[in-house]
Design a protein that fits this description.
Elements (H helix, E strand, L loop, with lengths): L3 H9 L5 H27 L3 H25 L3 H23 L3 H7 L4 H8 L4 H10 L7 H4 L3 E4 L2 E4 L7 H26 L8 H18 L1
Helix pairs in contact: 2-3, 2-9, 2-10, 3-4, 3-5, 3-9, 4-6, 4-7, 4-9, 9-10
Length: 218
């Protein structure tokens, strides 16, 4: 009973949503490859940019996996609390890309996420603000609580669990894939100019970006 929604989601990913399962695996494999490149680059260079990129990508991978798990349980709204720090990972990578000296600033942990987003002119400001209101805190905002009740006998019923809805899982996975692509692009941009980096990673990123963009536009 506790994992009924997850079991139905996993069944769908083996049949009607198989392409989402394949793309999810491809994106995690791509993140793994980027982390492997950071590990190899760290052996060749003392550049703090490599250290920061590796740490941020590792954190981003963990957040992505947690988001994926929550989506399988039908807890996409609650997953929003993790989406904001994942977006912050993307912004931090861009911050380092613009100036390698920023890596040292990030390692001190004294630069607030909001200041970084403002400094780089992040395009994700509105999304961050929405997540702050509707997902990052225990809020009674409409978007934060609408999934917690259902019509029942002329009144409402407080839901004990979230039902499996294939269209929602499809949409939530597509959103996760889009953010993962942005994370991979930001990570690649940080390490692309380092000597000896595997240039074929750029082609893998482009292919996944095009697949996700095509579906979102469709």
């Amino acid at each position: 009973m506790l994992f009924d929604t997850r079991e139905r989601a996993l069944t769908a990913l083996q049949s009607g949503l198989l392409q989402y399962a394949i793309r999810t695996e491809d994106l995690f494999l791509l993140l793994d490859s980027l982390l492997d490149e950071c590990t190899r680059a760290k052996k060749r260079s003392a550049d703090d940019r490599v250290t920061v990129a590796g740490l941020i990508l590792a954190k981003g991978r963990n957040l992505s996996l947690a988001l994926y798990s929550l989506c399988l349980d039908g807890l996409a709204q609650e997953a929003g609390a993790l989406l904001r720090p994942l977006i912050e990972c993307i912004e931090r990578l861009e911050y380092v890309r613009r100036n390698t000296q920023h890596a040292e600033i990030l390692l001190t942990g004294k630069k607030p996420a909001g200041d970084i987003a403002k400094e780089i002119g992040s395009p994700h400001r509105r999304l961050r603000e929405h997540l702050n209101v509707a997902a990052s805190h225990a809020s009674f905002d409409y978007h934060a609580v609408v999934h917690l009740v259902a019509p029942a006998n002329g009144g409402v019923e407080f839901r004990k669990e979230q039902p499996y809805v294939e269209s929602k899982l499809r949409r939530n996975l597509l959103t996760l894939h889009a953010v993962q692509v942005l994370l991979c692009i930001a990570g690649w941009n940080c390490i692309a100019t380092l000597p000896g980096v595997d240039a074929s990673l750029a082609d893998r990123i482009d292919a996944l970006r095009d697949a996700v963009t095509s579906e979102m536009d469709g």
